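Moderator note: this is an archived Q&A kept for reference. The question asked for a predicted structure of one protein chain; the sequence and the answer are reproduced below.
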Amino acid sequence: MSDLCTITIHELAGRLARREVSSLEATRAVLARIDDPAIGGAVRAFITVDHEGALTQAEAADRRLAAGNAPELCGVPLSIKDVLCTKGVQTTCGSKILAGFKPPYDATVVERLKEAGAVIVGKNAMDEFAMGSSSENCAYGAPCNPWQLDHICGGSSGGSAAAVAAGLGAASLGSDTGGSIRQPASHCGVVGIKPTYGLVSRYGLLAFASSLDQVGPMTRDVRDAALMMNAICGHDPRDSTSLNRSVPDYTAALADGLAGMRLGIPKEYFGEGLDDEVRQAVEHSIRLLREAGAEVREVSLPHTEYGVAAYYVIAPAEASSNLARYDGVRFGFRDMAADELLAMYRRSRSQGFGPEVKRRIMIGTYALSSGYYDAYYKKASQVRALIIEDYRAALEQCDLLVSPVAPTPAWPLGAKADDPLGMYLSDVLTIPTNLAGLPGMSVPCGFSREGLPIGLQLQAAHFGEEKMLRAAWNLEQRLAISDRRPTL
């Protein structure tokens, strides 16, 4: 039954529709793999596993499949990053301050997956409050890269990427604030999409930086990513940033050939600090895209070097506001030893938040404080406007931007634990996408000599997801590496 854990959504959906296998069988196989000390226990991709709930959902999916005309996701086991609310199931955001918190409602994207009949097996490990690039900031233990267990799986959606790569569910939902879907997807050899800001509802997403956060899918191949996009995209009146526009069938974009498509290669993304193996894998992929019919040209995004600095003012500033709600009063952890209110606030937050979250709250509070707002937050917002203008000019010349996702493959666990700046710089190629609110995508494009995955990044103008999917699908067909799986 192990093949039920490692095949794609569309392959499993076909077997479910033909009644060759039941959702209950597929779900039991995934749960057994999660519980296996040598696989799930070694990867540590989950904070919470919902055995009983998953089996109940699988039984309901089988009844729906038996009745006929079920959606393609019906009966498919998948997981959810622990930043999304799940009714009655613990949602911690990777933090001790939310230990034991069980939301009274589902996030909109969770609702939509349930409506499609998907089976949610559990909640994935992540950097606390999505703040990190390696998932080592998770208060419940860092997940490991299935390709090499002593390496990071990326962050902050590291548990989601690791789960998909390791066969612990056919797909997962992650969130991307500065690369948190694309970077771990690249490091774990899976497909990850950060949609256009506002295309997917953020209702029920525990906020980190509200102007940057976006929910998106992580899957084993491009077709599965399109299927997940079909399920989760669309207007939601409960989210004031949700865009009211029709959702296409993203699987229709998966057509052979790229004739007429113009690809831009940002010269700033291939400069100092880019690992040679990453460069070679990406350049080989660009040649394949050219062979598929695409026109390739060099473009410039001149303010790229300022993206990290602007992000690490804007995102912490928004986080300092969003995380003020975790005060030990309304929900989550409370220090019971405090004898007065202010002491309870201080002690609860000091004990409940980890070091990286505290660091960013302090940075953000400082940047917004009287006398410093203009020098920091206002200036960062002006830089953000310059980055948006860079993208506008570049995307007038081309349909997609093609680049590496991350400067290097995954690094050993603990290697950057004492180097927060080095950790921040690992997102230098993904952060600008979020600052501009554009869609971005990671698709596997090769492996390092050590056998670690390397991802290619595609970026598009607003609502350019169909173009990204088409290019990614064409690359995937020509590389023929999407069926490679880590050995566990």
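Archived answer notes: The two ends are 15 Å apart (CA to CA).
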